[in-house]
Amino acid sequence: MSGGLINQMPFIRYLAPSACGYNQILDVLNRMWTFLQETVDGHKRTILSQPRDLIDAFLHSMTIKVDVSFTDDQLIALCLDLFMAGAETTSSSLGFAAMYMVLNPDVQKKVQAELDEVVGRGKWPTLKDKGNLKYTQAVLLELQRISNLAPMGIAHRAVKTTKLMGYDIAENTIILTNLYSLHMDPKIWENPKKFQPERFLDRNKLNAHEDYYIPFGLGKRRCLGEVLAKTNLFLFFTALLHHFTLEPVEDWYPEALPFDGVTLAPKPFKVKLIKRN
């Protein structure tokens, strides 16, 4: 789990497998593995000369070369990685987006006004519009800052004994980056708990504050799906707000406190989608 106890102290799965969520994770993974195995088996029964998708292409490679990297288990693991990395993060991000738009209707109206001006009514937003949607981009940057999907980033390991800022770090030490602390530091961000897209705008120019804004991590283990994630979030978010207005149901507003899972996600809430004229 992104910010969970088991990610910070992996050994705890041997001491309290249920309490730390390890058993629950195994249950979900086993069910997903079974589903993907059935999907792969279905492709094997109906394989075509021209690959239909990644699974077909992988199976085709298995028939023409013998390699330890091309096995059924590797294929399922690859599909599992793609499914979890793509579906989970996008789903959680869109959940937070809906929540913060309901909680900040003034921000929602500004995004819609910008979309109307740049894209035009009756059209779908595309990536070609992105460069001209400065405020919308600032909203998405603020969304990723304040939601902190992976508050402790990806676990790293010290490959050798070293010293950092006076601290001795032994070889094989698990190292976690506290991205939540960075993104919510009041010394860097004024009123960090306030949803304020303007903090990423400087005289109507986008300022991503790259020195201390790193929702996708840094270094060799920086999120490989960063470009895809940003693209998906932009297209889904703009399409949603361009065609609908999000409002609370019966004046019941969601609580801006996430719960921990594979990533941090908003607690379940109801939202009313009103089609825009």
UniProtKB/TrEMBL annotation:
Record's bilayer topology term: Peripheral membrane protein
Gene3D superfamilies: Cytochrome P450
Main location: endoplasmic reticulum
One of the record's GO cellular component terms: endoplasmic reticulum membrane
Protein's cellular compartments: Endoplasmic reticulum membrane; Microsome membrane
Organism of derivation: Dendroctonus ponderosae (Mountain pine beetle)
The protein's required cofactors: heme
InterPro entries, A to Z: Cyt_P450, Cyt_P450_CS, Cyt_P450_E_grp-I, Cyt_P450_sf, Cytochrome_P450_fam2
Superkingdom classification of source: Eukaryota
Membership in a protein family: Belongs to the cytochrome P450 family.
Residues engaged in binding heme: 223
UniProt function note: May be involved in the metabolism of insect hormones and in the breakdown of synthetic insecticides.
An annotated GO BP: organic acid metabolic process
Protein name: Cytochrome P450
Recorded GO MF terms: heme binding; iron ion binding; oxidoreductase activity, acting on paired donors, with incorporation or reduction of molecular oxygen, reduced flavin or flavoprotein as one donor, and incorporation of one atom of oxygen; steroid hydroxylase activity
Keywords tagged on the record: Endoplasmic reticulum, Heme, Iron, Membrane, Metal-binding, Microsome, Monooxygenase, Oxidoreductase
